[in-house]
């Protein structure tokens, strides 16, 4: 079974940016990302801006992003090929 990758906030922002999310605001050490698709409500995610994210945090971001992005597209970015 593939293992969850250790990611930094910068890597997560780059991954989600590739799917059309962009940073709309930051407050403290968290960034709010937003993606607008015509005919749908805005899609919003929050990412803590830490150098290295804890595995549970990476998994929580992954699960939140699954609400908006298919698992087939998102999984290769968050899980290794072990």
Tally of individual domains? 1
The CATH homologous superfamily corresponds to Hypothetical protein
Q: Mean of the pLDDT scores?
A: 94
CATH topology, which one?
Metal Transport, Frataxin, Chain A
- How much β-strand is present in the residues? 15-25%
State the helix count: 3
Going across the biggest sheet, name each strand in turn.
1-2-3
Global Rg:
12 Å
Helix fraction by DSSP (H/I, runs of at least 4): 25-40%
Distance between the termini: 7 Å
Structural class: alpha+beta
CATH class: Alpha Beta
Per the principal axes of the C-alpha atoms, what is the gross shape? Answer: globular
CATH architecture: 2-Layer Sandwich
**How many beta-strand elements?**
3
Point out poorly predicted stretches. Answer: none
Write structural notes for this entry.
With 82 residues, the protein is of the alpha+beta class. The protein has one domain (9-69): Metal Transport, Frataxin, Chain A. Helix content is 35%, strand content 22%. It has three helices and three strands; from the N terminus they run αβββαα. The protein has helices at 9-18, 55-65, 71-78, and strands spanning 22-27, 30-35, 43-48. The protein has a three-stranded antiparallel sheet with strand order 1-2-3. Strand 1 and strand 2 form a beta hairpin. The radius of gyration is 12 Å and the shape is globular. The N and C termini lie close together (7 Å).
Structure summary:
The protein has 82 residues and is of the alpha+beta class.
